[in-house]
Amino acid sequence: MYKIKTLLVLIVVIPSCFSQNDTSTPYSLFGLGVENKTATGGLTGLGNTGISQNNSGEINLINPASLGNIQQKTFLYEFGINGVYSTLKTNNISDTTYDFNMSHAVMAFPITKNVGMSFGLLPYTKVGYDIDFENPIEGSTDTYISRVTGSGGLNKFYLSSGVQVFNKLSFGVDLSYLFGSVNQETNLYYDSFVNITDVNYYRGFKLKTGVQYNLIKNTNKEITLGAILELPANLGGDQVSNSYKTSVGGTKVLIDENVESDLEDFELPLTFGLGLTTKLNSSLTTSFDFTKLYWDNTNQVQNNESYNNQDIYAFGAEYLPTDKNKYWSLVKYRFGLNYNTGFLNISNQKIDSYFASVGLGLPMSNHSKLNISYSYGREGSTSNSLVQENFHKITLNLSFIGNWFNKRKYD
């Protein structure tokens, strides 16, 4: 009964937590916002690698084929939070921001032997910006100020399953439903004050498949290959607009109220990824991932930006001491690197990013673990009057292993 109550609390509370997620970066102005880059378990500390990771005690959202490796009579559930401290700077000014978010709430369990399932809710994108523009008045040397503020983002609910078809080969499929709103408010200051609010709602499905193959698997050595394929998807959208005007004398005049219109579909690209995980002794595990997103094949509405193909390179290393006599010898020590070429090209400048991470996997009991990671990175550039973001990120993931399917025994 306690576990049922816990599940009900999660279902009620978690969606409201995601609705309060926020970010502060000018690059969330473009597209659907910035992607939620937090991974489950210890994968954030491993540079967000995971295509070929198949730890039976951790939930891997990157490749659904890993679900075929979940142990029977167990139930895995995990929550994640993160905090980001950022410095935003141009060639002339700089500012600092701090954001705190819930990153995910996910669960996984076996269906039968070698078949596992997972479901959960997490932010897919986040939007948060507050930008002032100085605009010239045609035929005059005067200017007026417009302030554009953005908020919101999309959430992702997923249902995935994985099956181990042979001793070394696993397949998986992930179906996700994306939904949410991207909100933009524009305030114009000139002879009068004009407020324009647009709420853009998007929704749609996307499908991902994955495969993992244990090339070598024995007591002292493991080599695992992995691949993922995410099919292109179209997100349908509609917009609700409101606007009003306030004169210098304070008179408020409604211009438009709840004007509904259809939006062009937002196209998500074909994505392909390859991964390699090696464990050449009982202590050291390394992972390499490469992911490519084919944005060139999408037909996005573009203003001053263009969408280009995106490459992501990731590396992770995990060390587990062989001496088990002390608590710190039970801790997993992690390191990761990640470079992302980005998909945005603004003023002939590619908006790329990178981060380096370190992490710890801290056992709290036989059935729970706290994964902590710290990342430092950069996104964007100060070239061509753009903005560069330097960020420090702390991630906390709390995972539990429950024996939900064991029958209680009585003496």
TrEMBL record:
It comes from Algibacter amylolyticus. Keywords: Signal. This is Aromatic hydrocarbon degradation protein. The keyword Signal applies. It comes from the Bacteria. Residues 1-21 form the signal peptide.
